[in-house]
Design a protein that fits this description.
alpha+beta, two-stranded antiparallel ribbon, 5 strands, elongated
């Protein structure tokens, strides 16, 4: 399933309360370790640690030996 929304954060623990107000859900604290990302079980927002996301992008840019160029 595609995440409802992707939110990049600098921490490894995210606090999610949904959309807030009547559209929200109970505040939950989500641990991003070990993958550096987690999806909220209530609202499907995906939280991604910026450092982990940038490291993944750098690894992808470093080359794909069996990719489109090979």
């Amino acid at each position: 399933m595609t995440p409802f929304e992707t939110i990049e954060i600098d921490e490894m623990v995210a606090a999610c309360g949904g959309a807030g107000g009547a559209l929200g859900h109970p505040r939950v604290y989500l641990n991003l370790a070990p993958a550096g990302r987690v999806e909220c079980p209530y609202c499907s927002r995906q939280f991604v640690n910026r450092a982990v996301a940038q490291a993944g992008e750098s690894a992808n840019e470093a080359g794909d030996p069996g990719g489109a160029h090979g």
